[in-house]
Specification:
This protein is an alpha+beta fold. It has three helices and nine strands; from the N terminus they run αααβββββββββ. Strands 2, 4, 5, 6, 8 and 9 form a six-stranded mixed beta sheet that branches.
Length: about 180
């Protein structure tokens, strides 16, 4: 090795520091052994220094392994809760209903780790003076089970979606929006 760049080695963290210390130990040991009469106390001290460098490298390597496992699992340490997405079950997407009162039972599959669910519903309203419509949100519900009832206000299109919430208050991804239509 003609040139060792300590700054570059130290950029690798504890592993780089451990390697640098081991290399310096080697240089000290090589220098001590070139002496006509090597000092045993100095050689013991250098071996202790080398052991420290080795332990530091092992510790640094172990921490890199732990970091890589966490980054593979994702930033959320909750087993992927925030990447889950509730799966809606009923009423089916684009379902049509012809009954009054307009009360719908919404149901979806349970999400592992969910403490509660946020249910959002919206109604489609016409924009006065234009030939278009927009979605107006209704007050969301928070429920502890994987189903709930909603009372819908008009003979119109509506849509709903669900987001799971875990014990820590983290939210999963929201489900897709599903449409329903009350004809009367």
């Amino acid at each position: 090795m003609n040139h060792v760049d300590p700054a570059r080695l130290l950029s690798y963290g504890a592993i780089g520091l451990g390697f640098l210390l081991a290399f310096l130990s080697y240089l000290l040991l090589a220098g001590e052994q070139r002496r006509p009469e090597p000092r045993t106390s100095m050689i013991r001290a250098i071996y202790s220094f080398m052991l420290f460098a080795f332990l530091l490298s092992v510790l640094g390597f172990g921490s890199e392994i732990v970091k890589s496992r966490v980054s593979v699992a994702g930033p959320d340490a909750d087993g992927g809760f925030t990447r889950q997405k509730p799966i809606l079950r009923s009423p089916e997407d684009r379902s049509e209903h012809d009954f009054y009162p307009r009360v719908l039972e919404l149901a979806w599959e349970k999400v592992a780790g969910a403490k509660s669910y946020k249910v959002e519903t919206e109604i489609q309203v016409a924009i006065i003076g234009e030939h278009s419509a927009e979605w107006a949100p209704l007050p969301p519900q928070e429920v502890a089970t994987n189903h709930c009832q909603i009372t819908f206000g008009g003979a119109n299109w509506g849509r709903w979606r669900v987001t799971a919430v875990n014990q820590a208050g983290e939210q999963s991804q929201s489900s897709d929006w599903w449409l329903f239509h009350f004809m009367h």
